[in-house]
Amino acid sequence: MINPKAAPTPRVLIVDDEFIIANSLSLQVEEMGYQVCGMASTAQEAIELAHAWRPDVVLMDVRLKGDRDGVDAAIAIHDEVGSKVIFITGSREPATMARIQEDHPAGVLFKPIYGQQLRTAVETALG
Q: What string of H, E and C letters represents the secondary structure of the chain?
């Protein structure tokens, strides 16, 4: 029986153009007890899924397929939906870090990502 007073399970949107990484993140998020509401590989897919599902947290790769990157998607999602965005990147280059700071990141994780890092970042974003 569902407890009507229980808080809804937080929803997480995963955005990464590498299926293996997206799938790994999805499994980790589900193991933490959160709902994966979708996976996207482009900025446009991410924005559309965010509008449809209104995720609490978005795990956003910086480099995506297509003309727009993860920062473009994150800014749109943050402005239009209000989701917290945790950026995922394999680069520590100053230009990449400056680009990430154009949004209001809830966190930044560097690949490879390990379970406890992900758990801490998501729990912190959920507040």
A: CCCCCCCCCCEEEEECCCHHHHHHHHHHHHHCCCEEEEEECEHHHHHHHHHHHCCCEEEEECCCECCCCHHHHHHHHHHHCCCEEEEEECCCCHHHHHHHCCCCCCEEEECCCCHHHHHHHHHHHHC
Place of tokens 């955005």: 15
Summary mean pLDDT of the chain: 93
pLDDT band at 1; cut points 50, 70, 90: very low
The CATH code of the domain that includes 64 is 3.40.50.2300
**Structural domains in the chain (count):** 1
Q: Quick check: pTM over 0.85?
A: yes
Tell whether 109 is covered by a domain.
Answer: yes
